[in-house]
Structure to design on (65 residues):
């Protein structure tokens, strides 16, 4: 979702090569898909969708033990 979050996760899990590969793959795919959607879907749809994703992420982080 954001560069600082990605950097912290990378620093924390960098010893696990499979996790790093998974994070890199997801980040690249998300960046490509997001860049494509910027030119296709209007901002009035993308901004609320981003807000929902951030809220879901926040709830998951808050509930994590």
């Amino acid at each position: 979702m954001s560069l600082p979050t990605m950097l912290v996760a990378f620093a924390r899990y960098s010893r696990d090569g499979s996790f790093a590969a998974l994070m890199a793959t997801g980040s690249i795919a998300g960046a490509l898909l997001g860049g494509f959607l910027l030119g296709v879907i209007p901002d009035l749809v993308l901004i609320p969708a981003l807000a929902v994703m951030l809220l879901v992420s926040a709830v998951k982080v808050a509930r994590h033990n």
